[in-house]
Amino acid sequence: MRTSQPMASSWHIKRFGIVLAGAAFFLTEYHLVAMMTAGRHVQLMSELDRAIPLIPWTAWLYAPLYAAGIIATGFMLRDERLFLRAIVAVGIGQTINSVFYVALPSAYPRAEAFTGVPTEGVSMAILRWVHSIDPPHNTFPSAHVMVAFLCAMLAWRSGHRGRWFPVLTGLGIAIAVTTTKQHYIVDSLAGIAVAWTALRAADWWMDRRGGRLERTERSA
User: CB–CB of 143/153 below 8 Å?
Assistant: First the structure.
């Protein structure tokens, strides 16, 4: 009992370090690609995108829902293998996103979205703040939706009784990025597809790696 406690504490420290390193990679890579693609963006606007109104108060949900889903999932991923699978999946997902960002750099015309909309109010101030920290380009696929739905799928795998919560936050993020005019509808759909693909790729790589380790141990 005395020996397991230091080992558990060591693993929690490693988890924290891995998460920080992953977040640093994610943000650095995202902004580097954004700098690379500056000035050459296409629009993916559809009639359905135009029909969806700008709803400023959903800006209140944007960051809190995103953070809540990630934190809740982190508490549910107690199993070391599932946690490492999550890190690998996020890395694969963001790599796939970056390929699309370079090959099809897209941008959302925010000025068009704000035409004729009252600019006063607390919700609008928060929305302007969200827009100020999140550039309008490299929308396809949505990295926010990708991460949110990865959390939902991983939380569901964990079997935790609260696994429905990241599912709801994932759906909330998909709605919020559209109604705050951060993303096109197709961006969210692509983000979900990338999340599924990334998790399947992580499964394949981790399972194959685990099989190699087992064979190595048996032959040793």
Answer: no
